Amino acid sequence: MKRALVTGGSGAIGTAICRRLAAQGRHVYVHARDNPARAEKLAAEIAAAGGSAAAVVFDVTDGGGALSALQEMLEAGPIQILVNNAGVHDDAVMPGMKPQQWSRVIDVSLNGFFNVTQPLLMPMIGTRWGRIVNVSSVTALAGNRGQTNYAAAKAGLHGATKALALELASRGITVNAVAPGIIASPMTERSFPQESIERLVPMKRAGTPEEVADLIAFLSSEQAGYISGQIISINGAMI
Questions:
Q1: Predicted pLDDT at 20
Q2: Using the 8-state DSSP alphabet, how is residue 227 labeled?
Q3: DSSP 172
Q4: Which residues participate in catalysis according to the annotation?
Q5: Residue 24 to residues 27, 120, 174: CA-CA distances in angstroms?
């Protein structure tokens, strides 16, 4: 059984990803930082449905803490599927943006990507098989007012995706990024009323977390072994 780690696994999209990977027969580590109870509940639900899952709690921006948690997981064997889904918004237009707003968003998306991914690479390389999927955003491709920090962080993730894909291509490991558009969630419902969605999205609806999870599950599968270094949009034809 291949083992998968989903950072930010207790959120709306993360939950759907965890459920979908578990349905593929993976052992799933559901990661959380601020809400361990939600991660524990999801892991228990996956197990009750016949899957295999466990909750893990650490801060992706804390390099030492992340390394300690990852080393403990690696004691049971390599993690061959990694979904870097953790990310935060801290929106403000650039003239009014505080330094900590910039740093926090960059820290989670980019430093968090390094802190989680780097320790898993050598064990993954040793198996000659791996799948790394980084969750980005349409904002990195098109920009968005009030999200210069978020756009910069996720666009940086695109560059890292392409470079790491080249480094690992000969080792049987693929690295891709998925860039969702407007995806239904409690936060989306507050930020994007239906009239805004109809104006912004040609398909006239928000995507679902399950649709994102299906794409990530495919990229994490054996069937996607020749897809690497790609930034794949899922946004209802927004761009």
A1: 98
A2: -
A3: T
A4: 150
A5: 9, 21, 18
